[in-house]
Amino acid sequence: METNIDLWRDDTSLLDDAARYRRLIGKLIYLTVTRPDITFAVGVLSRFMHKPREVHWTAALKILAYVKSCPGKGLLYKKHGHTHISAFSDAGYAGDMRDRKSTSGFCTFVGGNLVTWRSKKQDVVSRSSAEAEYRAMAHTACEMVWLRKFMTELGFVQSEPMPMHCDNQSAIYIAQNPVDAWEKKIVSLTFTPSSQQLADILTKATSSKVFSTICDKLGMVDIYAPA
Asked: What is the pLDDT of residues 152-175, one digit of tens each?
């Protein structure tokens, strides 16, 4: 998705066939189950299903062109010699220009491999970026706790705290209170610079260079790419 595109403008014409747009977005939503690289863009475009415009159709075709250019791109799972759980949590503050709601994003790793990810608009309006980040961290912590219990049932016990990477110091300070999982030594909060935040592509549109770098770090490879 282009970094400077304005999808909330209402001066473009409505699509004559809105059902065609809904069918395309619906198919792309299914594709996000295995393609974290398009999750944010598809999630944003799905917000305009009720009244799609030409600008939305153009953006959807851009996603389609990207998928067509790399049909063999996907996640490659490797053996790293451990089953530790970790996660990256991020938030795009006030990303929706209509209601000023932020977008939460997280990606979780088990044994060094990406297993779950999510990009979702928050239910309420956050008054600051720290509040938006804290809400995203709460969702991430829930996912990490669920993964830990699931792995325990499979016989893989992780006794040490699970690291969660966040690029907002204020949100980390807010989370360090007696009622959070941090105090219970379940999750350890680690400050990570924005340049190393892997959940960035789940909360906002990034430059092609940053996008490509994060996809590589998430473990995505193109099996048809020349050696």
From this structure: 999 999 889 999 999 999 999 888
pTM value? 0.93
pLDDT tens, residue by residue, 5-47: 889 888 889 999 999 999 999 999 999 999 999 999 999 999 9
What number of CA atoms fall less than 13 Å from residue 74's CA on the CB side? Answer: 11
